[in-house]
Amino acid sequence: FPLLVKAAAGGGGRGMRVVERVQDLYPALESASREAASAFGDGRVFLEQYIPAARHVEFQVLADSSGNTIHLLERECSVQRRYQKVIEETPSPALDQSLRNKMAASAVAMAKSAGYTNAGTVEFLVDAQTGDYYFLEMNARIQVEHPVTEETLKLDMVEWQTRIASGELIDFSQDDIRPQGHALECRIYAEDPYDNFAPATGQLLAWRPPSGMGIRLDSGVTEGQEITAYYDSMLAKLVAWGTDRQTSIGRMLRALESFPVLGVTTNLPFLIRAISHPEFQSGDYDTGFIGKYQELTSPPESASLSGAAAQIAERFWQSAGRASGKGRGAATLQDMPGPWQGLPKSTLP
Length: 349
Prior knowledge:
Elements: E1 3-7, E2 17-19, H1 25-40, E3 45-49, E4 54-63, E5 69-81, E6 84-90, H2 97-113, E7 118-127, E8 133-139, H3 146-153, H4 157-165, E9 182-189, E10 191-192, E11 198-199, E12 202-203, E13 206-207, E14 215-219, E15 226-227, E16 234-242, H5 245-257, E17 261-262, H6 268-276, H7 278-282, H8 289-292, H9 302-319
Antiparallel strand pairs: 1-2, 1-3, 4-5, 4-7, 5-6, 6-9, 7-8, 9-16, 10-11, 12-15, 13-17, 14-16
Helix pairs in contact: 5-6
């Protein structure tokens, strides 16, 4: 002990229980099995060692039908709630080059031993205290967080997945994989970070994504759309690339602060707090990051929240060409300084 009960057919944090004492093991097995059967149609579970201070680091691999297998370096995925990733980055601040090389070799060997073909992700837990790493699982698909790999390698992974599936061979080598800069991804969810990340629903009255140098948004929603409880609560993936980690964090902060969303509660305030936190800024964090710092999910005081909401609503209606009070004409976003001033449009270098 401690042990982790996991669903054999699971993912996304479903069917997982931490067990600290032997008397809690049987109830945890039953509970996890029921959840797994409901979520995945398969109630099988297994046990593994639970590492309290762990980093979640995964390696992207590509393998073609000739057996040629290469890796596309790692992604750091340790900021999680309910065992589901929220913020990802590459390169990982937890790895030195020696450990990176060892884990990459293990990921490639894993894929080769399985005779794997196509894009896949080999996931590991890294003991933050000892530097030892443990195989977690392999996902036989492209992950949600693949954009950070694309932005640092300038490689279209969806294209390569399709080309390999059609029988093409990889036409570049491991030596050609040379990362540029640093990339950070924040998952924007329709959920309330002040209510245990409970899913939120409603109509997107305003959805004004930011743009700017190094900013990318992958989204499946539009302004006016109804957000229901019938689908996953993720609305978009916001990605920031920079020449180094601090630059990408700075760009991400400006983008999050320049992203007005009205009508549906989102985790945007939490994301701003998380990447502004000194522990995240230092790079010395683990999978317990969110639970360790209550201030990340503590609701703001009602007075400041009401004032902020009033300012947001006023500026939104002004940007729509309406006057918000007597004697004042309509204004545009360009006329107004403040947090809703958009980032300058440009493309990735």
